[in-house]
Amino acid sequence: MSHLKEGDLAPVFSALNEKSETVSLADYKGKKLVLYFYPKDDTPGCTAESCSLRDGYPRFQAKGYEILGVSPDSVKKHVKFQDKYNLPFHLLADEDHAVAEAYGVWGEKKFMGRAYMGILRTTFIIDETGKIERVISKVNTDNHTEQVLED
Questions:
Q1: Distances in whole angstroms, Cα of residue 105 to Cα of each of 31, 52, 75, 87, 147
Q2: Quick one: pLDDT at residue 151?
Q3: Burial of 67 (0-12, 13-18, 19+ CB in 10 A)
């Protein structure tokens, strides 16, 4: 579970996006950012979450937010996922899970009695100064836009 809380400075990061461009937290200085960590491209929950954010993207932009998705998938997988679902925001390839570890969302998961390491689905709302405004650890994948935008 994330050790970060409201008011903490967001950890700096850099990773490749779906265009193989380096993206860092500094690129969003002066902007509000929805940074969402999800386990895997093109799986039911991750697709629902990403599509919810896609559908709400105009609302996020109207409120001054940018969106970044982060998963351990490769740049190549991100390209396919983004193209398939017309996602209008960048997806970061965190193959070594360094970004996830910095945010405290790389941890043990259990599925069908098997324990393994992976992304603990979490969303961070980061303000214009780089401080964490909110941490959402119980993500509603089907209605994530409403969950993020609720005050």
A1: 23, 21, 20, 23, 19
A2: 62
A3: buried
- Check if 46 is active-site: yes
Query: Catalytic residue among 16, 33, 46, 68, which?
Result: 46
Assign domain 14-149 to its CATH superfamily.
Answer: Glutaredoxin (3.40.30.10)
Q: What's the pLDDT at 25? A: 96
> In this predicted model, what pLDDT tens digit does every residue of 28-84 receive, in sequence order?
999 999 999 999 999 999 999 999 999 999 999 999 999 999 999 999 999 999 999
Q: For the chain, which residues make up each domain, given as ranges?
A: 14-149
Phi–psi pair at 7, nearest 5 degrees? 95, -20
